[in-house]
Amino acid sequence: MNKKQVEVWLRERDPVKLQELWNRADAVRRKYVGEAVHLRGLLEISNYCARQCAYCGLFAGNTSIPRYRMTIDEILTGAKRAMECGFGTVVMQSGEDYGMDKAFITEVICRIKTETPLAVTLSLGERKDDELLEWRNAGADRYLLRFETSDAALFDAIHPPLGRRRVDRIAFLKKLQSMGYETGSGVMIGIPGQTYATLANDILLFQSLDLDMIGMGPYIPHPGTRLGSTPPAACEDQVAADETTVCNALALTRILCPDTNIPATTALATIDKAHGYEEGLARGANVIMPNVTPKQYRALYQIYPSKVCIDETPEYTAKLVQERIIAAHRTIGKGPGGRFDAHTETEE
Ligand code: 5AD
User: Fold this and answer.
1) Average pLDDT for 216-242
2) Which class for 18: exposed (0-12), middle (13-18), buried (19 or more C-beta within 10 A)?
3) Is the CB of 126 under 6 A from ligand 1?
4) Which residues pair with 189 in a beta bridge?
5) How far, in Å, CA of 116 to CA of 56, rounded?
6) For 252-278, what is the mean pLDDT?
7) Distance between CA atoms of residues 42 and 52, nearest Å
8) Is residue 155 within 8 Å of 149, Cβ to Cβ?
9) What is the pTM assigned to this prediction?
10) 127, 173, 219, 334: least buried by Cβ within 10 Å?
11) Each residue's pLDDT tens digit, 225-237
């Protein structure tokens, strides 16, 4: 599929044509990654952030939210709860929090690796090379960093650099791959200034980067942020931040990157609380990342408003998600569910 064709599919709204695209994506998903839906327990370990991203509620200048940083024991308890919920992976995510230093994260990884069979995924922002290397050596398996958009001018407009250090996220992802991390990335869909041509480029970039995981969700305006409070005038050819566009992007990504892991994201489940996960799973997704953050911290990790499950416990969230997967006639993945683990072994 060339860029023009991807662009045409992204804009498609004819229900008959859409069904054709979605069926094709679903068939590719079934053939390459099977029926299993892998569950990754998402543990939001700190909401401190050094960055000033124009769209994210955790931006450093947001003085209206209390900040928290989980202790080692809280993180270990969280990881063990993920394991008890039947998940094969714990994803530790935070703002770009240099208060969680190299040694702290190393110790967390070592303890999780010693005390549980979990795969460990890190999603801690643009951290330094020596940190990434040490964490990989300590046993971290995967790293997630969305490049958010392949349009460099748009990226720069919404991601003020930290000091004078501007990080090229594409180079960063290649570095992670060379360190041996299973590497994940992704974009927001419908960020102001994103055109259909840009989104088509994003999807072709996923393919050329040969990513192990690709996450996509709708942009959800946060009123406390620069973009949310003063949105720019809509650009010509602005991508819609709606469910159909997200599903089209998911389906195209599955078709172009057939064996990658693609989550039905929390943001998608947030704009369609009743059916968001199911829609994602039917359009190419094979992963869900249920939140296992302790209840008292969930409301403080609002990268966007109205996030699902902020008043639930980890066990409740897990049970609900598992029931929804079974109701969607899919199976629960077992084990870590990495890209190169044979999927037949991970199905029930
Ligand atoms: N709407 C949707 N997604 C968002 N993210 C951050 N802020 C928002 C928002 N307002 C996404 C980014 C980030 C991921 C952790 O959450 O893509 O990489």
Assistant:
1) 95
2) middle
3) no
4) 218
5) 32
6) 97
7) 23
8) yes
9) 0.96
10) 334
11) 999 999 898 889 9
